[in-house]
User: What shape does this take?
Amino acid sequence: MIRLESFPLPTRSPPTGARSLRAYPTLRQLIAAALVAQAGLAIPLAGNAQSADTAGAPRAATASPYDATRHDALVGAVRDGSTSPSQAVDQLNAWAAQPLAPAVRQRVRADTIVFAMRAGDAASAVRYARADGGIAGLPDYALEFVFQAARSIPDHALQGEAVAQLRSRQPEAWRPRVLEALWLTDTGEFDRAETVLNVLAARSAGSDLEQRVALLEARGALNEARERPLEALGNYTDLNAIDPGHRYARREGTFLLGQVDAPTAAWKEAQAASPDMFTPLERASMQQQALGRSLRWAIAERDQAVGHGPARFVRMDEVLAGFEPAIQEANTAEAQARAAADEESARAWRDLSLQLRYDRMLAWLERGRFPAVIAEYEALRADGVNPPYYALSAAAGAYQQQRRSDLAVPLYEAALRDGGSAIPTPSDTHVGLVYAYLDTAQFEQADALLTQLETATPPLLRRSPERGRANPQYGAVRNLRALEQLYTDRPAVAERSFGILSGLAPMHSGFRDGQAQTQRLREHPDAALALYEELLTDSPDDVSVRAGYATALMDANQHRAGRELTDALEQEAPESIAVRNAVRMRDGRQAARLDIEAGASWGGGALSNRDWRTDTTLSSPLIDDQWRVFYHQIFAQADVDQGSSRLARSGLGLQWTEGRWGASGEIHHANQGPYRTGLALGLNYRASDAWRFAAEIDTNSPETPWRARRADIGAHSAAAAATYVVNESRSFTGRVQRMDYSDGNQRDAVGLSWRERLITGPRFQLESTLGAEVAGADRQDVPYFSPSRERAVELGLRAQYLTWKRDDRRFYQVVQAGTGRYNQAGFGSGALWSVRYQHQWDIGDALQLSYGLGISSHPYDGRSERSREVFLTISVPLQ
Assistant: This one.
């Protein structure tokens, strides 16, 4: 599989700057610079007859008639806290209902606006401001609160009216100009706002603290509106330096740290702040963002610490340990909020808990804990939760790793649909979907998606500081296309693609890895090993390259080196797809195995009238990476004209493989015949990627004709073969065989064959085999078929159709047909033909099963005989 590390990982963790950390974002609208937000209660008294501690200050609305003394007492009561602003609003409304002089009514309305804002009721404050002819008659102190209320709604028109009134009344004052800059910022007039602030800054050299604070606040608000978080953070940092107790600057600066991709620093700031600076929800939100950032760092640390074994995961495990208490805290807070009937807070805590769970899914995926990711996703769905796109992508990746690409496909598709423009092209989600399509035989969809990625990824960047800058993703997409060609059984096309790519970038490890994989699939194990060894010289720590080298070693029967390298990689990088593939291959090669071949035929007469046969081999696990002990059992029976014959042969053997060589020896015993106890030997040698040689001897040949066995005649056999392999699509084989019968007869045969794949593709393959054989026997006065000379030429076709596929589980339908001519000395020539239909199941590393039926016709002694057959083969690794 492709190394996902070659693509950016935009969907591996949530975008930290995509959402505000603030639990209550509306608080930002309440900031109207230091002149309002941090001002004291600015309401003037009518006189000094009453003060804040005046006896009998009202505590609630009364029906007493209005007078200035009572009004001053109300202001003092709010100032000292004995009356709440909302109570004061009620009292002022009661007075406003009475007949009042115009000046008095304006004062009552002005203070009602101020107290409504103090009570947090901006909407009522705006309503009072627009009553009784508008704001023209309001005093200056009330206009600042009108501005603040209008900004909170927002009501930009009322903001502008308040600014205009203040500027007309205080043309030289700086406070109205600051409010003007805020209003221009709120209405998107950023350049005009900056001009106002620049003019003020030029005039404010040596100004007092209040003015400097107000200017920094306004600049911070402007830079935030312009989406310049770094500049805004600098403004609030300067503000904290001159006014350490400035609450808003401290809060906003901390939030901005999260926005500028420093959530860990924001979390540390929140931890160091006073308890009342941030709400528990705000702190928990910052912790969640910090955990997400720490996860990204941990992933990068893991990827850079190749070759360090389990130590690569220390930091990631530390981050993972932080999720569970954070989730528990959020769940507890949600339960408490629901118990208090605070649904808004409960929803906020619920959202935070879900966000933490999504992040933990990503962490589990990167840690290789795929069952945990799947269990969490299924638990979320059971609760009716629709996870966001990046969590869907994580769940899809986990299903894919667990060999359930059929479940991964809809999740990847949903992730791309829901993520939209938030997911760059290409991304790991696109790559995962390409492979999920391939693993579920949706080859047309995979090709269409790859075409989409190629279209969206030109060779040169469309936007870059200078023209002609290469697109770093272009090569990755081209590499993905070549791998798609390789994995859809088009290795010749893939070889050309990787050759072009390696020519463009000779040192690119991904392209060279693809070349090595192609040589493996083209049945060139030596070439694959050489490419990997060369590549490891340049990239000794590349996990995917080392895993590919391990599989190439096992292909070349260098089992010890392959196993040791795979063992090390399994400890070092268990989450890697390439490593997991190598582990599966190692386990299959090392495991014990049961192989069964069975068949039955009927209808012929020259060889037998009816026969059946089972050939079973039970092999031990690989011993010392070279040896296997095996038990071999043959049961067979045939009916001939003279009666029936039965063969039961049991053997115990030893098999050895190391590199280019392979050998086996078996001592066997049969139930009948002159050679009941015997020996079978086999030898294989791979001289190069092109030449393979084999030889075998059996002192009681299983190929002895049934009519010979019925006559108590046995046979020794010896055979040798040489194969020239061009590639997976073409090979040539020559074979010689001698059979020495116990009755003194000898049969010699020489054969040649040429195999050629005519059509290759992911769904359909067509192969042809052209074979010719010449044979002859010394004697014809024997009770079995033994012509003095025979020749045959046959052309066979094998069509294979992929009917179903899910990851490494496949179902094929196979049709084989052959036709040719057979010539027998003394009887002339005749046509021969055969047809077979077969089902073939490959259930990953767990089972290979095929079964089918066939019919054939062959001339014997000048007479064509038709026979029918059924067959079954099973191969099961016992692991």
User: Anything to note?
Assistant: The chain has 29 helices and 16 strands. The longest helix spans residues 314-339.
